[in-house]
Amino acid sequence: MLVKVAARIRARGLGVGFAGVLLSAMLLVGCSEEEPTEAEAPTEVQTDTGAMGEVLSSLPVTLECPVPVADPLVIEDIVLEPAEQALAEAPAPAAQIPKLSIIIDDIGHNRAAGERVIALPGPVALAIMPFTRNAQALAQLAAAAGKPVMLHLPMENMAGLAIGEGGLNTQMERAGFDAQLQASLNAFSPIQGVNNHMGSKLTADRERMDWLMARLGERKLFFVDSRTTKDTQAAFAAQAKGVASVSRDIFLDNQRNDIDLEREFKLVLARARKQGSAVLIGHPYPETLRFLERRLPGLEAKEGVRLVSVQTLLSRAQ
How confident is the model at residue 205 (pLDDT cuts 50, 70, 90)? Predict the structure, then answer.
């Protein structure tokens, strides 16, 4: 009978914990093999005024053991207050689950690689190079699949490496900088945010970072700092201009063998657990894509870390 009572209580939405408390109370009240002595005679059960009190007050003070199967105890409908019902149904707080956001850079040159990124589980972001032949097609496919779409904006680096069409450099004056930036922002759509391609020299230039963030603010776009230099000014400029931003924690694939990929992945998971969240950036190399195709399914169940969109992390302190 006690099993039936617990089942009926769970059916009313009170949960396993409530059923356990009720059954324990019933057993303590009078379920014993011997008749109680006078000194042990049960007294009136004092109950609270809530749902628990209503249930206990509706029960007899003593229960015979064993309870006859032919004499089932029926508990009437129990109505919880709205606050009690919400508490009973509330899931575990999402804020307590470490979060990981993944961005794949350099998308747009190879359509097949871009489509493999789109097919990855979860909201993995595509950072698409401007003026590449597959940029528009992949942006549309990614948006249709619910993936974040970003402009992977070329910026000047300290090594003097070629940065590709649409790049920004520290020699540009304001008018030329703005014109090139607007052209890159209009190169494909839709986009939700921007991150830097290379940029170790430009991101350290506070004045031009201010110019960049002013335009992103006008378009309500977020910025992810790839942190290609310790001297970056991007986060400071974003904060000054009111642009939502977050910074990279780990590059996944500086080395592309399975051992190094796994080591960097475990490192970013550890960072997420320590900080509460982390940002991982990778590239559409075959080795990287094979690794993520194997590692991402069931990530939360296996590692206790939830894969989320980059937008989810935008409020993280810099």
Answer: very high
CA atoms within 13 A of residue 101's CA, in its CB half-sphere: 24
Pairwise CA distance, residues 21 & 175, whole Å? 71
> pTM (2 decimals)?
0.71
Place 82 in a pLDDT band, splitting at 50, 70 and 90: low
Name the DSSP letter for residue 134.
T
- Rg over CA atoms, the chain: 30
Strand partners, 196: 153
The Cα 265–Cα 280 span in angstroms is: 8
The more confident residue out of 52 and 138 is 138
- pLDDT at residue number 70: 36
Task: Kindly tell me the burial class for residue 227, based on how many C-beta atoms sit within 10 Å of its own C-beta (0-12, 13-18, 19 or more).
Answer: buried
- The two tokens of residue 137 are 């097609």
Q: CA-CA distances (angstroms) from residue 183 to 21, 130, 165? A: 66, 9, 10
Task: Report the relative pairing of strands 125-128 and 149-155 from DSSP bridges.
Answer: parallel
Question: Please, which pLDDT band fits residue 99 given cuts at 50, 70 and 90?
Answer: very high
Contacts of 43 (CB under 8 A, 6+ apart): none
**Spatial CA neighbour of 76 closest among 8, 164, 175, 27:** 8
Residue 111 has, within 13 A of its CA and on its CB side, a CA count of 7
Cα 1 from Cα 5, distance rounded (Å): 6
Q: Is 242 exposed, middle or buried (0-12, 13-18, 19+ CB in 10 A)?
A: exposed
Mean pLDDT of 102-118: 98
Q: Is there a contact between 34 and 17 (Cβ–Cβ < 8 Å)?
A: no
pLDDT at residue number 94: 60
Q: What DSSP state is assigned to residue 271?
A: H
pLDDT score of 316: 54
Q: Any idea of the CA torsion for 181, 185, 191, 197, to the nearest 10 degrees? A: -50
Residue 125 corresponds to which tokens in the numbers above?
Answer: 């972001």
